[in-house]
Amino acid sequence: MKILVTGSTGYIGKRLIPILINEGHHVVCAVRDKLRADKTYIDDENITIIEADFLKFETLKNIPKDIDVAYYLIHSMSNASRDFESLESKCAENFKNYFENSNVKQVIYLSGITNEENLSKHLQSRKNVEDILKSENYALTVFKAGIIVGSGSSSFEIIRDLVEKLPVMIAPKWLNTKTQPLAVRDVLAFLSRAKDKKELYNKSYDIFGPEILTYKEMLLKFSKIRRLKRYILTVPVMTPKLSSYWLYFVTSTSYKLASSLVDSMGVQIIGKTSNINTILDVEPISYKEAVELAFEKIEQNSIVSSWKDSMISSGRLKSNFHKYINVPKYGCFKDYKERKVVNEKLTINRIWSIGGTTGWYYGNYLWKIRGYIDKLFGGIGLRRGRTHVSELDAGDALDFWRVIFSDKKEKKLLLYAEMKLPGEAWLEFKIEDNLLKQTATFRPRGLWGRLYWYTVLPFHGFIFRGMINKLVESNT
Known about the structure:
Helix content: 25-40%
Mean pLDDT: 85
Number of helices: 15
Number of strands: 19
């Protein structure tokens, strides 16, 4: 079959595509920017990458008309836009209008459990999207999932941050909200097995794990698995805003995403039973098993996707990477340094391992201070780290940077700053003619931008000099 996957650079999409390929299907990956597509897709004859922005109907013409099954995985937890719901609705309307005039037989939509009367605005938006996607020209299959647990999922990483950083938690009352966590492997099983199943046409199913747990119980179970003694006291006086700040300062989430999560976590997420497990032969694993499996992936450094790599993890960078890949030359301040490369392979490996637990090779304490300052001013700080220890792809989060371009063959890595700045900043590493060329570029915004540059200039001098020296340093 020819299968379309929207949201193919997202947390679920990146994990679903290899499953579909292994089953022998041809997968069409719809991305807003080809630079974000996985490099391994380019040479795979079973994958076609097309650029399409579902907010812009005219771009959808790039999508083949002979699609058999389409997965609708376009979601966002961002509060960055006041008309959030209308943007999600517009994406769904454009999708529907295009595919009603195509050969697609089935559309599979992953939504959230919406059984409560009072829904968060994000769950209400997903419910509206479901209504919009319904059509007489193709069959719609809807899966409604609760909290998804897996390596790199937002819920897993936030719980991990809370448990591993706080021996004692004074927590908001929404920790007593009930939910049914579901392992990401089971979500993928439901999605992959549902295609071309006529008995699932025009039907909706809640999918959930075998246990009903409160968020507090999830935290305590997590701590038990990690063999950590933790104490949690819930208080009724913590407002949603204070709760958001609590998550923001303790975990790696941004404030906007924290606000969205708090809004959703106040809603009970309990699924309606059905025969879907029997139809698709899926037996969801327990929360304990899901957490243990996630840590296996982490220990093996085999995390396929992470919520931190999504654009909403900072909200600063827009989706069009082409706008940022051309580093400006005029009206900018630059710190340029070059060094002779002794061992090219070693230097490249160091560049591609920079940040995260590895650090920045020189003056790490200053990088950490800059991260703390960023958090205090509402930025993301350094807590996102990186998804992989030694690999970087366009779109990946790297501490408070975003990878814009990454190509080991071209020996070039380009980063864009997502920290709070009175301007824009890029950091480029490139090896040419046996020289490592390291360039920090800052385009100031107004007087404050210029004052900022001259304030940090003394620190840049020895930080960037120390960093490039370490990158080219030979072990022999």
